[in-house]
Every structure is written in structure tokens, then in C-alpha cells.
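Our consortium's second objective concerns turning raw sequence data into structural hypotheses that experimental partners can test. To show how far this objective has progressed, the report includes one record in full. It was chosen at random from the queue rather than selected for favorable results. The single chain below, 167 residues long, was entered without modification.
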Amino acid sequence: MQRILVSRCLLGHPVRYDGAGHGPFDQLQRWQAQERIVALCPEVAGGLPTPRPPAEIPGGQGALVLDGDRQVLTVQASDVTAAFIAGAQIALRLVAEHGLRIAVLKARSPSCGNLQTYDGSFSGALVAGEGVTAAALRRAGVQVFNEHQLSEAANALAELEQAEPRG
């Protein structure tokens, strides 16, 4: 049975920067009941507290953070890059440990956004890009979806399971 990496905030855990959670999402609840979910908040796993100051990537590109070309900064300009990279590394360890091939992560997050992230101006402006963990997972071959793409994630999961050899 395929398991799915899921952002803890999407499961209602109060781990967001502001101490909030999200959900409930019916699809995630079904997967949770089937014991498919591996839950992770990369920011908390990387050592950041809850609540914490909001953080953004100047230019919004998590891949550049992984490559050492950008930092992740809080609204007070504190560098939290190391915690974001540590969280991404923990996500990659979970991928290897559980054979994960699909992730459902929080949209627009500087860790987890898969299509858009905030631009680093703390103005609410979005740019096309992905967060640090989303970029690391994609590079590792994991399909990354957000909470607005749960039907696409379910379809990808069904395709993976159909392709698995029957034992």
C-alpha cells in the first residue's frame, strides 16, 4: 500500500507559523483512516517554534535555497535557511524510509508550496515557484500536490497502485 507525505497543518495540527492548522479535508481523513499518511511539518521538524515569525524566500524559489543561492528570511530579516533545509532533509529521509512517491503539502508555503510562493516582500504578492521542501521532494522524484489538488493526488495514487506488481 502506497503511503503519502502530508503537511501536518493540513491535518489540523496547529503548526503553522501563526499556530493555526487547516482542514478537515475529506480525502485526507480517508487516507488517515487507511493509515496511509506520513505527517510532517518541515519547518517544525527543522527546529522552528510554533508560533514563529512569517518567513519568505526573496524571489520565491526554494530550489535556489537548496542550491545555496537564496536565504529564507523572517519578516524581521532573520535568516532561517538552515531550519528550512533541515526540514527538507527530514522529508527526504521519510521518503526513503517509507518509499513515498506522493506528497500533499500546504499551498504557497515557503517550505511546501508546489506552484506558487510568496515573493519575499511580505506584501502578499505571489510568484510561480516552489518552497524548499517541495523543491527537494520534486528533485527526488516525488509528485507534489497541494490541498487544492487532492483529486489529482488521489488519481496519481491510484495510478501508482495499479502499476504495482501483484504479490
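The partners drew two points from this record. The longest strand covers residues 4-7. Residues 55 and 74 are 4 Å apart (CA to CA). Both points have been shared with the crystallography group to help prioritize constructs.
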